[in-house]
Amino acid sequence: MPAVLRPQAQRDRLAEVRYYRKKAGSRVAVRLVNATNVALDQMELEPGIGSPSLGMILGIPALRTWRVAKFPLLWCYFERDGHVDVVRLLGERQDIAELLGDLTDEA
């Protein structure tokens, strides 16, 4: 199932790449891009792989999260008919409840 990134997820990813490039250099930024791609590939192959725990805590039971390996980042997504609806890429230290507060299980 293909992963389709919403515009905000694309902006989140770009912001993280820029942040890591500025703070840690281009090599780390490239590793981040590769790690986010690997995580997306995993979600495409097995959409149910992500944890539903955060979604349940926030009252969005269909929301799943999948961690980006070696980075403190989470892809937030919904399983849809025919695709993975990727809504955000968030840092584990961000106020995720605040950032996802308006999110609903609607495309």
Offer a few descriptive terms.
alpha+beta; 4-stranded mixed β-sheet; 45% helix; YaeB-like fold; globular; single chain; 107 residues; 4 strands
Helical fraction equals 40-55%
What Rg, in angstroms, do the CA atoms define? Answer: 13 Å
Shape assignment: globular
**How many domains?**
1
What average pLDDT do the residues reach? 91
The biggest sheet amounts to: 4 strands, mixed
> Tally of extended strands?
4
Q: At CATH's second level, what is the architecture?
A: 2-Layer Sandwich
In spatial order, strands of the major sheet run: 1-4-3-2
Query: Structural class given helices, strands, pairing?
Result: alpha+beta
Assign the CATH topology.
Answer: YaeB-like fold
Straight-line N-to-C gap = 16 Å
Description:
- The protein is of the alpha+beta class and 107 residues long.
- The protein has one domain: 2-Layer Sandwich (YaeB-like fold).
- The protein has helices at residues 7-24, 26-45, 53-58, 96-99, and strands at residues 3-5, 64-68, 73-80, 83-91.
- The protein has a four-stranded mixed sheet with strand order 1-4-3-2.
- Strand 3 and strand 4 (83-91) form a beta hairpin.
